[in-house]
Amino acid sequence: MLKRGGYTHQYADGREGVRYRLVTMAEDGLLIPYPEHGRFFINRELAQEYIDTHADRIDVIPYDEIVFQSMREQGRHKGEHAQEETSGHDVQKSSDTILIDGQECVKADEWKAGDNVYVVGNSVEDSSFFYAEVNGKDCFEYDHKPYRDEVEDDFIDLEAMRDIDRHEAEAFSRFEGSDDFPDIDADADKKPLTADDIQNLVLINREYFAGSRTTVYDFECDIRGEHDTLQYTLEYHDDGEGFTIHTEKDDIWERMPEPELERLEGILSREAVYFKYHEKIAGAESLEALKELEYEIMEDESLYFSAVSERVWNDFTRKEEMLSGKTQETSGHDVQKRDYRVGDRVYLDNKPYEITRTDDWNVEIMDRSLFDPPRRLESKENFAKLLRQDERNAHLFTSEEKEPEQTGYTTETVKVYPGEKNKLPYDVVIEKLHFEEPEKAEPEKLMPKEPEPEKPDYKVGNTVTIEGTEFIIEDISDREVQLRDPKLLYPIFR
Hints:
The protein is an alpha+beta fold.
């Protein structure tokens, strides 16, 4: 059984917002949000669309009916758990009068049931009226002498109504804020939230409602270090579009100034574009499928894409290398391969973490020393850098030695001529080549001396070919030979 309701709220800065929610009745009769505590809808159409989609398990009933059922169910529930009634002797009518709800009465009955004390009096002014008082504060009027169970039922109904009002006020205050629950604004004196306080955004779900032209994005994020779930709703209209941003804990829509909300909306739109391509790239199963996706990416000229294009193309390149079976090589001695998996313990920032999830680009870790640890997401590239900062992670890497190439000479850059200034499609770099003489080993005794190698016979003005390019020898010294490219109009030396 469900009921649907909504209301308009006036924000402190003058903005108005309407929210809708579905509620159902719990076992004790209290009304609770459906399908979960933090779920709400920004308009009636979205709520109706959800009801239509789940019509096989939702039965919608009118508001008055569910409130009536809730009251009766709460009364029955309280009656079942109340202590066994302990009633005293009937109080005989006497000449002593009492005041009930401002009316002078002669006490007609008094008893105790559970923790509640009931008193019934007959009006002195008009004997056809009776008044009942419970615990000295709640009063009821009757045009007949009521039975005890009648007074008790009326009191239970009153308590049920109070519980409903209290629960609804508390639930609404979580969305819109309320003076009835000052603890909601207990942190109002804190520094206002900014868009920069929202970090580690990860898109976990995206849903489009065609009927209302509304897209709902669900993100996981960290807000000032506390993990939270954020919902970004974008609604399209004929004359433009509107958005809302809400979080599961301590709603961000209330805590963040409007200019910062607009800035955050831009960040969320940008991340939505990135994760759209991120998912498509991750789902590509062949180089042909990846090639088709490449054309789609290249045609995207939106402003948001330009802000995330580098990340998208990095993902694309890594996926392309993975599908083509390429392995990345690095020069030098320390060629390392990652060897970690889900469940491994790692040390970052001098704290232990457990790897809880990995994919082609990211690693998710959690601090298991905390009772309710937030999830932390790091790119694999950054994760590898963090691992190397703590020696306790050394066992997660395997090293392979690779000798650097021996060129036999070193280079020294003399000057650079940018291609833009010289109207060339490349930069011209002047380098000096320094040929290192090998160390001379001492000849073994009694061994004949090897003949010295012949010295090359070249001189200034000769033409030589190096790496497929012809050069003219311009100068010769004991340590170097200076060359000039004759095809260039200006003297570029090597």
